[in-house]
Specification:
alpha+beta, Peptide Methionine Sulfoxide Reductase, Chain A, 6-stranded mixed β-sheet, about 250 residues
């Protein structure tokens, strides 16, 4: 067991790698999995919660977008890629400026960004309310302020970046519903803020859970989320993830 926080290990290891490698993108993807170290902490337990009583987004016809932050984006992306009706889930950064939307800079916790996932979904197949239920149940622990598991800092905060008033109202009412039900050990600290802009993360972060399932961090903290999704949401779960790389290759005609 190491006494160095995992998020610092991940950041410092990345910095050393970036400084010494010219073609670092592929190597970084492998190194990050090993150096995003597993600690003695257990993965966050899923919480069985009711669906939102009110969904103000009902009626949306075309593809919609939701942006959620809930700790390291590897696991959050992996969860929503396996939800039926989700067309794409992209890891990235929200809450800060374009100039600082880079992993090594965001990792300082000083840019205002949160590691986030932009979810494009078909509301005819999955509702915003269902996405919220999965987000609060299996994707992360909404009671942890500015951290998730071993990862500490405002870049790992719990946040919903809404894209319209209907999403804002639905999220606010759902948090009030869950707090009143007292299903969590503490109060929900999830921020509900407008989405200024979303910036996709570096390529080596995309589809990380799927590409690196043997990573110690993924095994310990993220694969249990996938198991919980399958157990708690069997009707929404799909085994074949909607990968960013597959969509990009299809668009390129490969």
């Amino acid at each position: 067991m190491t006494t160095t926080p995992a998020h610092l290990q991940r950041h410092s290891s990345f910095a050393r790698l970036a400084a010494t490698a010219l073609a670092w993108a592929g190597a970084a993807a492998l190194a990050l999995g090993a150096l995003h170290a597993t600690s003695g902490l257990a993965a966050e337990a899923a919480v069985r919660i009711p669906a939102p009583a009110i969904d103000d987004t009902v009626g949306a016809g075309e593809l919609q977008t939701a942006v959620f932050a809930g700790g390291c984006f590897w696991g959050v992306q992996g969860v929503f890629q396996r939800v039926g009706g989700v067309v794409q889930a992209v890891s990235g950064y929200a809450g800060g400026k374009k100039e600082t939307a880079h992993y090594e800079t965001v990792g300082t916790g000083l840019t205002g960004h949160a590691e986030s996932v932009k979810i494009t979904y078909d509301p005819k197949k999955v509702s915003f309310a269902t996405l919220l239920q999965i987000y609060f149940s299996v994707a992360h622990d909404p009671t942890q302020l500015n951290y998730q598991g071993p990862d500490h800092g405002t870049q790992y905060r719990s946040a919903i970046f809404y894209t319209n008033d209907a999403q804002k109202q639905t999220a606010e009412r759902y948090i009030a519903q869950l707090d009143a039900a007292k299903l969590y050990p503490g109060k929900i600290v999830t921020q509900i803020v407008p989405l200024p802009e979303f910036f996709a993360a570096e390529g080596y972060h995309q589809d990380y859970l799927t590409l690196h399932p043997a990573s110690g961090y993924i095994e310990h903290f993220d694969l249990p989320k996938i198991a919980n999704l399958k157990a708690l949401f069997p009707q929404q779960y799909r085994a074949e993830p909607a990968l960013v790389t597959a969509r990009a290759q299809a668009a390129a005609g490969k």
